[in-house]
Amino acid sequence: RSPLFTVSRVRHILLWMIALYLTTKTKTPAYSHSNLYHYGTFPEGFHWGVSSSAYQVEGGWNADGKGPSVWDTFTQKPGNIPNNDNGDVACDSYNKIDADLYMLRALKVKTYRFSLSWSRIFPNGYKSSHNQKGVDYYDRLIDGLIANNIAPMVTLYHWDLPQALQDISGWDNLEMINIFNEYCDFCYATFGDRVKFWITFNEPQTIAWSGYGLGQIPPNVKQPRDAPYRVAHNLLKAHAQVYHTYDEKYRASQGGLVSISLNAEWAEPLDINVPREVVAADRALQFQLGWFAHPIFKNGDYPDAMKWQVGNKSELQGLPNSRLPSFTDEDKAFIQGTADVFCINTYTTKVVRHVTSRLNIESYETDQDVEKDNADGSENTAVNEQKAVAWGLRRLLNWLKEEYGDPEIYITENGVATGTAITVDDTDRIFFLKTYVDEALKAHNLDGVRVKGYIASSLMDSFEWLKGNTIGYGLHYVNFKLSSRPRTPKRSAHLYFDIMRNNGFPLPTEEEMLYGHFPEGFIWSTATAAYQVSAFGTNLLILSLRISIVSKH
Ligand SMILES: *[C@@H]1O[C@H](CO)[C@@H](O)[C@H](O)[C@H]1NC(C)=O
C-alpha cells in the first residue's frame, strides 16, 4: 500500500469518529424507531449520478449569441441576490467542459444530470433564432460524457425561460405549449441519438408557485390566487405534448425514457393517531406533488383533495368557477401516463397539521388548510427550511409506491447545503449522504420500492438561485473568488465515490469474509462496551475500526 492510501484511510477514520460524535450528541429524535443502520447493496446497474443545471453552472450568459433568460434579467438587477451575485460566470462550465468531465470521471458516476439552456440554443425561444454555437457546446459535453461511459440525463427546462418568452407572459400563455414543443422536438432530433433519459421540467410546482404565485423566483409574478393554477395547467399540457412528440417521432429509433422531476417534502402528520392530521398531511402532499403526479401517473386529473378544497373555497369566496381549472376528457386522456418512470427531487421533511385558513385570503397556500413545521430533532443545515431528516425519504418513497402503483423511481435530486465557511471538510454532507442513501436502500431492500437511481445534488458548488453564492450543495468546492474557478473534491466526494463503488453499504459480514483478518475479540468488545447505547453509533464505530484494520494489510 502506498502511504497515500494509509493517509486517506486515517482521514476516513477521523471522519467516522466525527460522524459518531454527531450521532451521539444529537438528542434522540421523536422518530427514533427509524434510526437503525441498514447494511446492504442496490442491484448491479443501479443508476448513480450527480446533478447540475445550466443557469447554476454554465456562465457565458451572453457568449456566442446566447439570449438572456429570466434569471439573467432578475439577477443582474442590483439588490435581488445577496452580494449581487449572479450567474454571469457561475462555475464557467461553458468554458470548462474538460474540468467538469474530469470530476465526473474521477467520481466514476454512471449518470450526469444537467440541463439545456433554452436561450443558448434558441436565443429568443423560437426555432427561427437557432444558435449553432450553443448547440455545439452541448454536442461537445454530450460526446465527452459518452466517451467516458457516462449516461447523460438531460433536463429540457430547468427554470431559465428565455426572456423573450416571458415578454409574452411565459407559462401563463397557452401558446407556450407549441413553442416548448418545437424546442424539445429540436433537442430530441439533435441530441437524442446519444441522450436516452429526458426530463421535461424540473420541479413544475416550484415554477408555478414560487415563480407565478409567491413571485420569489423569476418571472416574479405575484398572483397567488390563480396564476399558479393556470400555469400548472399549461405546464402539464406542455409536458404531455412533448412526451407524445417523443413517443410518436423518436421513441422507436432512439429508445429513451421521458419523465419529469417533481419535488416533494415528506409530510409527516403532527399526530398519526388523529385522523384529521393524517388527512391534512396527505392533502399537503397532494397539493405539492399530486398536483402534477396525479394527472400524469394516475387518471389525467387533479387529486380529489385539490379539486374539493379549491372548489369549496372558491364557492364560499363567491366566485363563479373554481380557481383550479378543469381538464376536458380529451385533456385527461392526453396527460395520463405521460412519464416512463417517476423522478423525484427531495431535500427535507415537514410536520404537517390541519388549520382552518381565513377565507378572505385567496391563495394556493391557504387553499390547503395546512401548516408545515420542521420535524423535531432534525439536523440543522445551512438552509433553515431544509432540515436533514433522512427517515422522511424512506416514507416518501413508500408513499410514492403506494400512491402511484409501484413505479420505477429515480431520485433526481437530493443533497444538503453548507455555508461558505466550509470548503472541503464537509462533515455535514457526509452525514447527510450516508443517512439519506441508507434510507433509500431500506426502501429498496426492506420495503420493495423500485428505486432505480440516485442523483446526488450537486456535482459542485454552484450559483444557488436566491441564495447566490452564500451556500453550496457541491461534492466539489468551487472557489468563486478566482476567475479560473478551480474545483476541489470535498470529503463527501470521496465518501460518495465509495458508496457508488460499493453500490451502497455492503454487509459487514460479507466484508469480514472478504478480508478475514479480524483479530479475535479485538473490536467488537470495545465497540459494544463503549457504545451499546446507540446501534447506529456502534455500527459506525465498527466500520471505522474495520477500515483501520483493512488498511494495515
Ligand atoms: C366540496 O367538497 C366536497 C367534499 O368534501 C365535494 O364533494 C364537493 O364536490 C366540493 N364542492 C366543490 C364545489 O368543489
TrEMBL record:
Q: Which InterPro entries match?
A: GH, GH_1_N_CS, Glyco_hydro_1, Glyco_hydro_1_AS
Top-level division of the source organism's lineage = Eukaryota
One MF annotation (Gene Ontology) recorded for this entry: hydrolase activity, hydrolyzing O-glycosyl compounds
Tell me the leader sequence span.
1-26
Catalytic residue positions:
413
Under which EC number(s) is this enzyme classified? 3.2.1.21
Biological process (GO) annotations held by this record are: carbohydrate metabolic process
List UniProt keywords, sorted A-Z. Answer: Glycoprotein, Glycosidase, Hydrolase, Signal
The similarity comment for this entry is: Belongs to the glycosyl hydrolase 1 family.
- Subunit field text: Homodimer.
Mind telling me what this protein is named?
Answer: beta-glucosidase
Gene this chain is encoded by: LOC107704822
